[in-house]
């Protein structure tokens, strides 16, 4: 009788245990939960991303062109990307699907070249990886570390590799991985947005035309409705716009246009100034003739002063500079163009402690001035976004600029200026520049009311207009626009476009999205010297020691059981 009761109890415990396993399996299949034990929470999505994906009401399909025979760094990148997309799927359910594609699998050389050209036309940037064999040989392979995100008939390109030439390969890979969430959410937001905010590029003062800012216009078009037009001194004409961009004016602003901009700012507007206070152009000296640079009068000094900055009408030379092609052939010989450093084209280093500039490549400029911040403007938050390097020189204007300067070796004792501000973000409640001024003379036919103290607004002032300008050239098939930030000589993609897009998104209140750029994943690298000197020891510790420990633990457990039951 006792044995029957004991058997029943054992059976009940077994059934209860099986039922517990079934219930636990069902709960795990329904509810997703993962504990992130990393110190920097690298595997945890932001609340903004979670909310956006849970509320997704359109189907998203992601084609990732990073598959095939990859080296270890890109294999690591692929694995982390898969984990990120898996997290997206858990939150969005069947609204998000993805696939990894080897773009060259099963294709001959001609078909592979055609596909590579097609992907590049869509905006994917390829890179080369070099694999070495045991015999010392090497093989170069083209890969596309990027994706195309599709939503209905619309699609957008995501380039995943942050290839900053100033950073080490491991750092570039780390920066790329920690930017996955931001890059995909930026595109998903653009493709699924229900309404479109408007921004405008101002015309009427000799600003860059639609082709010179064509690439940034196309990029902003994913998130905003981008318009162009003159102010024409019409008060309130800018009120419907989320942001105003003034790119490269060369003619003075009228007092009426200044008033419109001033009052737009008082109403909480956002203005981005890209200003060249010195009249200088590389095209003017490309034929070998020297150029006389002159100060440019734009009649905007009082507006900027009220905001808290002043653009110094000088040119800066920087040892950290871009290269330009220069003909080094002797007179009468065939042209022979070689790259040479051009001190008037500084490469600016974006600081890593600001969400606008975090993880950006160097910023390419040309004939740049610098900015002084004015401490007298209290209550205005001033954030320096871009600076020159620690070896900078100021060149007073007017001055003659010639290509012959590339033959002069820079002397360190001449480059004594350090970290001159080139772009500054100003945030706060600004005061009008038109206080106590009679408006009847400016607007005789209209009754105009002056708002003297504004609400929260923001202004970004950049002392170089070329930051936002792209190259272009007419072709029989239309105008060919070069991507902003791309340098044909060095074949580098500088961070100009990303910088401007980030700044506009930050200023227009997309804090949740731009905050994703503030995440910092610590890069923990191996001590290469230690690995090189004690390679055998660490190989044994990592490959031999774990199974030995497991075997010893099993033997110890077996010995304990034998000892316990042998006594019984």
How many discrete domains?
Answer: 3
What is the C-alpha radius of gyration, as a whole number of Å? Answer: 30 Å
Catalogue the unreliable spans: none
Strand content: 25-35%
Q: Strand pairing plus helix content: what structural class?
A: alpha+beta
Spatial order of strands in the largest sheet: 8-7-9-10-23-22-19
In short:
By secondary structure, this protein is α+β, with helices and mostly antiparallel strands. 31% of the residues lie in helices and 26% in strands.
Defining key terms:
568 residues, Rossmann fold, 3 domains, four-stranded mixed β-sheet
Describe the structure.
By secondary structure, the protein is an alpha+beta fold. The chain folds into three domains: 144 residues, 3-Layer(aba) Sandwich (Glutaredoxin); 324 residues, Rossmann fold; 29 residues, no CATH class. It has 15 helices and 27 strands. The longest helix has 29 residues. The chain starts with a helix and ends with a helix. The mean pLDDT is 84.
């Amino acid at each position: 009788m006792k044995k029957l009761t004991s058997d029943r109890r054992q059976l009940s415990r077994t059934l209860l245990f099986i039922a517990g396993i079934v219930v636990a399996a069902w709960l795990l299949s329904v509810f997703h939960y993962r504990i992130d034990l990393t110190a920097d929470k690298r595997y945890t999505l932001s609340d903004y991303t979670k909310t956006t994906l849970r509320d997704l009401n359109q189907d998203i399909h992601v084609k990732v062109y990073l598959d095939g025979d990859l080296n270890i760094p890109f294999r690591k990148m692929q694995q982390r990307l898969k984990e990120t997309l898996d997290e997206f799927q858990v939150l969005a359910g069947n609204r998000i699907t993805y696939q990894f594609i080897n773009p060259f699998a099963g294709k001959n050389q001609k078909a592979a070249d055609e596909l590579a050209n097609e992907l590049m036309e869509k905006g994917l940037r390829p890179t080369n990886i070099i694999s070495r064999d045991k015999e010392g040989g090497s093989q170069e392979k083209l890969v596309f570390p990027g994706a195309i995100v599709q939503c209905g008939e619309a699609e957008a390109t995501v380039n995943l590799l942050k290839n900053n030439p100033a950073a080490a390969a491991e750092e570039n890979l780390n920066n790329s991985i920690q930017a996955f969430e931001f890059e995909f959410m930026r595109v998903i937001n653009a493709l699924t947005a229900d309404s479109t905010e408007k921004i405008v590029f101002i015309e009427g003062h000799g600003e860059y035309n639609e082709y010179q800012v064509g690439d940034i216009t196309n990029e902003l078009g994913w998130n905003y409705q981008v318009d162009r037009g003159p102010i024409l001194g019409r008060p309130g004409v800018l009120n419907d716009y989320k942001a105003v961009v003034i790119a490269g004016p060369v003619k003075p602003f009228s007092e009426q246009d200044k008033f419109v901009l001033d009052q737009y700012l008082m109403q909480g507007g956002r203005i981005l100034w890209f200003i060249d206070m010195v009249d200088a152009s590389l095209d003017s000296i490309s034929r070998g003739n020297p150029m006389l640079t002159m100060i440019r009068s734009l009649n905007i000094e009082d507006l900027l002063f009220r905001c808290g900055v002043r653009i110094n009408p000088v040119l800066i030379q920087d040892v950290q500079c871009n290269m330009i092609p220069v003909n080094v052939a002797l007179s009468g010989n065939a042209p022979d163009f070689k790259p040479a450093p051009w001190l008037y084209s500084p490469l600016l280093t974006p600081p890593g402690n600001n969400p606008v500039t975090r993880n950006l490549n160097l910023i390419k400029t040309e004939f740049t001035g610098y900015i002084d911040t004015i401490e007298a403007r209290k209550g205005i938050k001033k954030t320096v976004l871009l600076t020159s390097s620690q070896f900078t020189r100021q060149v007073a204007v007017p001055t003659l600029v010639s290509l012959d300067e590339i033959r002069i070796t820079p002397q360190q004792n001449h480059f004594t200026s350090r970290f001159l501000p080139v772009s500054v973000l100003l945030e706060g409640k600004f005061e009008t520049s038109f206080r106590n001024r009679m408006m009847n003379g400016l607007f005789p036919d209209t009754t105009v009311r002056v708002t003297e103290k504004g609400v929260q607004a923001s202004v970004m002032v950049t002392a170089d207009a070329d930051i936002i300008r792209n190259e272009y050239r007419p072709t029989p098939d239309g105008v060919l626009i070069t991507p902003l930030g791309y340098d044909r000589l060095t074949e580098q993609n500088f961070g100009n476009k990303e910088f401007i897009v980030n700044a506009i998104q930050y200023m227009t209140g997309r804090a949740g999205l731009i905050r994703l750029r503030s995440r910092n994943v610590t890069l923990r690298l191996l001590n290469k010297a230690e690995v090189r000197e004690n390679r055998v020891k660490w190989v044994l510790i990592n490959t031999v020691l774990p199974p030995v420990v497991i075997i010893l633990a099993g033997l110890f457990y077996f010995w304990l059981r034998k000892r316990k039951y042998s006594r019984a």
